[in-house]
Amino acid sequence: MLRPIFLSHGAPTLPFEDVAARHFLEGLGATMARPSAILAISAHWETQMPMVNAVERNATIHDFYGFPAPLYDLAYPAPGSPDLANDVAHLVADAGLPIRIDGERGLDHGAWVPLMLAWPEADIPVVQLSVQSHLGPGHHYALGRALQPLTEQGVLVMASGSFTHDLSSFRTPLPPQEPVWVTSFANWMDRVIMRGATCDLLSYREQAPNARRNHPTEEHLLPLFVALGAAGEGAVAEHLHSSTTYSVLRMDAYAFGRAQAA
């Protein structure tokens, strides 16, 4: 089984920043078996129903504005995989969820930023799956459960979002260090994830301290639930990385696997 992972992708400028999260991602590919393909679930593709892209070669989508010019020169022309896209569509449909195939869309920065750092050669086929922010954690956990067979086929389920994501903080001077409202939320999430308390995690919005402050909208946390679901019932988490950028963006990453038999 290739363990599903959740990554925090940070700002689009992460490839240029000398921060711990960038260095972690640069070493990530060497810590695991080479995937036969990667299914990326990015917070930056939001649709009404699940959609999966099926292209021969992925275009690089620069889905942001106002950043330094060199950022727009970055490209990650990874091959696509229409066959994997069809497999994803069948698995999701078999689970009773609607899904459509998009024959044109490439990779947004939620996908290509971590991919570029971890697998810079851009030679592994990549397929991207959208999120449905209006449907919440339970839907995305079910979506992940539908995808679980892919993990037995050498496909890496790579969920990309952000452990905390309050962009309103950037409208005023950022605090000099991580504020309590970020730390309290991240610590609660980590405890629940590491305990395997899936029911509590699914209701994080009601239970976690400062949940709505850290995630005014849910799209950047929902990929985590896809990765968790894709690991199957009783998944065991490994905390791969923890750091903070810009004082308020937690860059935590997790892998989800199965408990080892005694």
Description:
With 262 residues, this protein is an alpha/beta fold. The protein has 9 helices and 10 strands. It has helices at 20-28, 82-94, 109-118, 136-147, 180-195, 198-202, 204-207, 211-214, 222-230, and strands at residues 5-8, 37-46, 51-53, 100-102, 126-131, 155-161, 235-241, 244-245, 249-250, 253-258. The longest helix has 16 residues, at 180-195. The model has no long low-confidence stretch (mean pLDDT 96).
Short characterization:
The protein has nine helices and ten strands. It has 262 residues and is of the alpha/beta class.
Strand order of the largest sheet: 5-2-6-1-10-7
**Residue-averaged pLDDT, rounded?**
96
Radius of gyration: 17 Å
What percent of the residues sit in helical stretches (DSSP H or I)?
25-40%
How large is the share of residues in beta strands?
Answer: 15-25%
Low-confidence stretches: none
The number of helical segments is 9
Instruction: Give the termini distance in whole angstroms.
Output: 18 Å
Could you describe the largest sheet, including whether it forms a barrel?
6 strands, mixed
SSE sequence, one letter per element: EHEEHEHEHEHHHHHEEEE
Shape: globular
Structural class: alpha/beta
Number of strands: 10
